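It would be a great kindness if you could assist me with a short task in structural biology. I am sending you one protein, given as its amino acid sequence and as whole-number tokens for its backbone shapes. I would ask you to consider whether the tokens describe a fold that such a sequence might reasonably adopt. The full record is reproduced below for your convenience.
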Amino acid sequence: MRLAARRDPLVLAAPRHMSTRRVAVHLLLRKGLFMFGAVVIVLMILMAVFAPLLAPFAPNATDMQHSLARPSAQHLLGTDNLGRDTLSRLIYGARTSLIVGLAAVAAAVILGGILGTVAGFIGGIVQAVIMRIVDMLMSIPMLLLALTLAAVLGGGLKNVVIAISISMVPPFARLMAAQTLTIKERDFVSAQRSMGAPRWRTMLGTVMPNAYPAVLVFGTMQIGAAILGEAGLSYLGIGIQPPTAAWGAMVSLGFPYLVTHPWLSIVPGVAVMLVVFAFNMVGDGLRDVLDPRLRGTQ
């Protein structure tokens, strides 16, 4: 117990009568960076859901008479070159980023999870083929692969989600394969096999559910990477297409006015930075709490 206290004093702060789940929640609530990230994510979700109520103007409403207006009581963050309210587009851009981040990671988790589980559980030539394809895709940087796929598929929300999700499949597949290789050797899996359970039932009903917690923690951290990828694609002009509000496109649109109207690029850039940081901190906190080796309980 002394070693556990030295590695993580928060473990001793939790009352002894607490269940494992309550201890995990207790430890998370005491992590400042996790709480900061969670608050930012909750605010982003609320902003995305209630965008029509929070935005002072329609996101695509133009007013050329007030184009490139400076921040004022009417336009708190000014307007862009078409006279569109920057704050309204920032609020609606949260919806775009959240949809892309969640949808892309969810698709990557499902597809990568299936490929990794099949490769790790079956082994042999199946594992060799799947892992070599995954290795080939992992040799290409994620943003470069997403950029290539987006250029082939074209812009738009659906194609951006497809491009980013495919580029994120390899790390999920490798992680799931590693988890499957470990779990399939455990006693409860061997006992199920000895009882004559079909291989597919053991793989889908026992191995996969026990391997997914680590993948879900990793997926939480990858949501930020997906949002950053969407911002990069939109900045380059092959992501979310105008007039849809997207933070990356807003950064690109404000770049020519960086000297005279710096807030047009800085504000959406800071929004991307905060959200990516928030998801990374939440994923890091979940990893520390759910992994007993990092929590100091082993």
Residues 1-14 have pLDDT under 50 and may be disordered. Residues 31-61+76-295 form a domain with the MetI-like fold fold (CATH 1.10.3720.10). The two ends are 9 Å apart (CA to CA).
